[in-house]
Design brief:
Elements lengths: L21 E4 L2 H11 L3 E8 L2 E6 L10 E6 L2 E6 L16 H4 L3 E10 L2 E6 L7 E6 L1 H15 L7 H8 L1 E5 L10 H4 L11 E7 L7 E7 L2 H7 L5 E2 L2 H15 L11 H7 L5 H6 L7 H5 L6 E7 L5 E8 L9 E2 L2 E2 L4 H20 L9 H4 L7 H13 L13 H12 L5
Parallel strand pairs: 2-8, 8-9, 9-10
Antiparallel strand pairs: 1-11, 1-12, 2-3, 4-5, 6-7, 6-14, 10-11, 13-14, 15-16
Helix pairs in contact: 8-11, 8-13
The structure holds iron/sulfur cluster (2 copies).
The site of one iron/sulfur cluster (SF4) has 13 residues, from helix 12.
């Protein structure tokens, strides 16, 4: 796509060189999509489907959810019509990018009887080259967290690492956070952090103030190569300032907060907290929170064979620490009660994740709040644990570690039925 040089915000456009913030008209999203397709990418981004904004392959930029926003609340998600035509004027939807990089189900190998034994065939997986269009800052951080778990060190060359290394990422900084968002607290947004190929900030002002357009930050040579095919021009300082201000203002409009300081220590000190009984009385142990969480990575394997015994397969699928069998050891499950399973999830997510991977396992996307069928709110649970630990609430357990009652219950969990 040709382009000519022009002044800041001027009528002319030029090819990208990765120097400074650029300005792209909203119509150029079609050029961006086309450039990605020409480069061999399967473009995935947000689109309206089944009453939600989901992530799916985009046949064209017209598939983007122009004019749609969302209303979020604990246990609730609704589409709402916006008063403008923003393409990214919505907070995180039910999916993250996890299903694309770390599929819910994948075949590890298959085997066929023959030659006096079994011939094992590795998974013949066709790995697409994804271009992710519309990655929120929280989800960008989540991808990097999953990289540490699934895609680096001894895991290089894994299917995850292969998908990940081929992926092209177009982040979109948030200017309209949702009611359940708290990325600002977790230091993961609303400005897109490093690691993107391109980062967009959407501006939806009236025509007199520039109209619908995007500030574009180029983050890699691959990003610069794609932008070279997309009409754009250098952004004026005032436009850059407007875009940055809109993102900064979003940080002040987060629906929730969760002070991240001391969470590791709080989790370690809260093993015996009374709050676990409270949350367990509401939690259905359905595992929704782990399915929608962009960082939860646990899997299990399942083997199957056909009726003739000639063919067998091994599949990997997502698992959840809320599943009773997740903690099955010889003779039974270690975590029988809902209390112990919720405590395990939260303690790992906010506490021991630091020990394993050097960061929090929560990026503040708020999905676990929205998609919990009973509306359990991770920020409220942490606030209650904090209150209990500091003695703010009357009758709190003090958060001083495992008390006698908890030790008795935990002991029962290893050997007895739930609730004993
Ligand atoms: S724990 Fe909840 S808010 Fe945190 S990253 Fe997971 S789904 Fe998002
Ligand atoms: S916290 Fe909510 S989403 Fe998670 S297992 Fe419990 S009921 Fe399900």
């Amino acid at each position: 796509m040709g382009a000519t040089a022009g002044g800041p915000d001027g009528a002319g456009t030029h090819h990208g060189d990765g120097q400074g913030a650029q300005l792209m008209e909203s119509a150029a999203l079609a050029d961006l999509h086309a450039a990605l397709r020409r480069a061999g990418y399967l473009v995935v981004g947000p689109t309206v489907r089944d009453g939600a904004i989901v992530l799916a392959e985009l046949e064209s930029a017209a598939d983007l959810p122009y004019g749609w926003g969302v209303t979020l609340e604990p246990g609730g998600y609704r589409l709402r019509q916006r008063s403008d035509s923003a393409a990214f004027g919505h907070a995180a939807g039910p999916q993250s990018w996890k299903p694309f990089l770390h599929p819910p189900r994948s075949r590890l190998w298959s085997a066929r009887r023959g030659g006096g034994g079994f011939e094992v065939e590795p998974a013949d997986e066709d790995v697409p080259r994804y271009a992710f269009l519309g990655v929120r800052p929280c989800d960008l951080r989540a991808i990097f967290i999953q990289d540490r778990v699934l895609g680096t060190g001894s895991h290089t060359g894994s299917p995850y690492a292969t998908r990940r290394s081929a992926a092209f990422i177009i982040a979109v900084s948030c200017t309209e956070p949702g009611e359940t968002c708290f990325c600002s607290s977790m230091g993961t947004g609303p400005q897109a952090g490093p690691g993107y190929d391109l980062a967009l900030t959407e501006l939806t002002g009236p025509a007199g103030s520039g109209g619908h357009r995007f500030l574009v930050d180029v983050g890699s040579a691959a990003g610069a190569a794609i932008m070279a095919e997309v009409p754009h021009r250098p952004a004026a300082d005032a436009t850059v300032a407007d875009a940055r201000t809109a993102v900064t203002a979003a940080a002040d409009r987060m629906g929730r907060t969760m002070p991240a300081e001391g969470l590791h220590e709080l989790m370690a000190a809260s093993q015996g907290a009374a709050r676990w009984d409270d949350v367990a009385s509401r939690c259905l142990t359905c595992g929704n929170c782990t399915m929608v969480c962009p960082t939860c990575f646990c899997t299990t394997v399942e083997d199957s064979s056909d009726l003739t015994g000639e063919h067998a397969e091994r599949w990997q699928r997502w698992d959840s620490c809320f599943d009773l069998d997740f903690s099955y050891l010889h003779g039974g499950s270690v975590r029988v009660s809902g209390k112990s399973r919720y405590r395990q999830w939260l303690t790992h997510k906010l506490g021991t994740w630091h020990d394993q991977f050097g960061s929090s396992g929560c990026v503040g996307c708020g999905r676990c709040i929205v998609w919990c069928p009973v509306g359990i709110d991770i920020t409220a649970e942490v606030a209650a644990l904090r209150d209990e630990a500091t003695g703010t609430q009357p009758g709190s357990g003090g958060g001083g570690g495992t008390d006698v009652r908890d030790a008795q219950e935990d002991g029962a969990e290893h050997t007895g039925p739930e609730g004993t």
